Amino acid sequence: MPTTWVGLLRGVNVGGNTIKSADLVAALQDAGFARVKTVLASGNVLVEGPNEGAAQEDSGRAEIRRRLESAIDVRYGYGVAVAVVRLDEMQAVIDAYPFDEVPDRHPYVTFATDRALIDALAEEAAALRAEGPTAGAERLAVGDGVMYWEVAKGSSTDSPFAKISSRARYRTGAEAITTRNLRTLRKLVW
Predict the structure, then answer these.
(1) What is the residue range of 33's domain?
(2) Which of 12, 67, 79, 114 has its CB 3.0 to 4.6 Å from that of 43, i.e. a possible disulfide?
(3) What's the pLDDT tens digit per position in 140-161?
(4) The whole model's pTM is what?
(5) Is the pLDDT of residue 88 over 60?
(6) Measured between alpha carbons, how far is residue 58 from residues 53, 97, 115, 136 in Å?
(7) Which of 72, 90, 108 corresponds to the end of one domain?
């Protein structure tokens, strides 16, 4: 039985890395993916892949990631880091969101191509909290392989956590993080 995978492309449709949804679908179909669907224009894609047993899950995830990144590089000529999550895992991430949603705050979840990046980010965030309050601008919590982040609207790019997560070590190269609004994640699993 095939597994549905969510590919979260880092830095797509920002900074000159423009990818049209229809063309991305065609590129991934050309690369052999079945049942390809994009959600919104911010680098979210659903693909069908082989069902992996627990012992093979990491290798299956790595293979899906490799194939997605390769297909994008071949079609567009530039590398894009892709965090890969099974659809059932995405639902669990959504269900575990630890903060009440309120109108004046953005609910975000940060994913990584490598779990070690979330661990490093969590460590830096813990140091941030130890240095003093963030004046109510944001709240953070570590989840299962993700970082949950709630930030006041209008502060998404200049809050203390935003500044940490935008450091080059988290956004460039083969291993990177990518952040999505909780509302976007819900659209992925509908």
Answers:
(1) 3-90
(2) 12
(3) 999 999 999 999 999 999 899 9
(4) 0.89
(5) yes
(6) 10, 24, 11, 38
(7) 90
Determine contact, residues 5/47, Cβ cutoff 8 Å: yes
Alpha-carbon distance 122 to 118, whole Å? Answer: 6
Domain boundary residue, one of 90, 107, 134: 90
83 and 112 co-located in one domain: no
Q: Are 105 and 30 contained in the same domain?
A: no
Separation CA 145–CA 3 (nearest Å):
19
Whether 109 and 99 have beta carbons less than 8 Å apart is answered as: no
- The 8-class DSSP code of residue 185 comes to H
* Residue 37 structure tokens: 């669907």
pLDDT at 49 exceeding the cut of 90: no
Distances (CA, A) of 151 to 3, 56, 137, 138: 33, 37, 6, 4
- Say if residue 124 is in the same domain as residue 74: no
Examine the domain organization and report whether 65 and 104 are in the same domain: no
